[in-house]
């Protein structure tokens, strides 16, 4: 495990996350495809928001289970709470350079979310 740091573009939002230097990343649903957002899941206990709580706003849709949190100033989504793992956070595209050794990308069919969750052992175990 290594400590990754990251945040939004303007620097108002900063976080730390403990995870492997080898990231297992998912390419998922309709909103993620539109935003070109890949993501990895870490437990809430491994995520710390360092600054910017007052500069965050949240977008939800469909079941409103996923919380797409982004900076009010620059609009960057540094992390969010996924529907698949509501006690988890994701954030690979906003990690600062220097701590990621490798990235493995796996597809997850978010358009058929319920069926995909039943069949997808990897994401269910995170």
TrEMBL record:
Every CENP-V/GFA domain range: 4-114
Keyword line: Metal-binding, Zinc
Domain of life: Eukaryota
Pfam family, one: GFA
GO molecular function, one term: carbon-sulfur lyase activity
Family classification: Belongs to the Gfa family.
Name of this chain's protein: Centromere protein V
């Amino acid at each position: 495990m290594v400590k990754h740091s990251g945040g939004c573009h303007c620097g108002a939002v900063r976080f730390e996350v403990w995870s492997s230097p080898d990231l297992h990343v998912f390419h998922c649903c309709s909103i993620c495809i539109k935003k070109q957002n890949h993501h990895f899941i870490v437990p809430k206990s491994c995520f710390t928001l360092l600054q910017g709580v007052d500069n965050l706003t949240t977008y939800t849709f469909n079941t409103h289970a996923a919380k797409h949190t982004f900076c009010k100033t620059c609009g960057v989504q540094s992390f969010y709470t996924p529907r698949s793992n509501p006690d988890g956070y994701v954030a690979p595209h906003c990690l600062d350079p220097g701590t990621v050794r490798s990235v493995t990308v796996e597809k997850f069919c978010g358009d058929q979310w319920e069926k995909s969750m039943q069949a997808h052992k990897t994401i269910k175990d995170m």
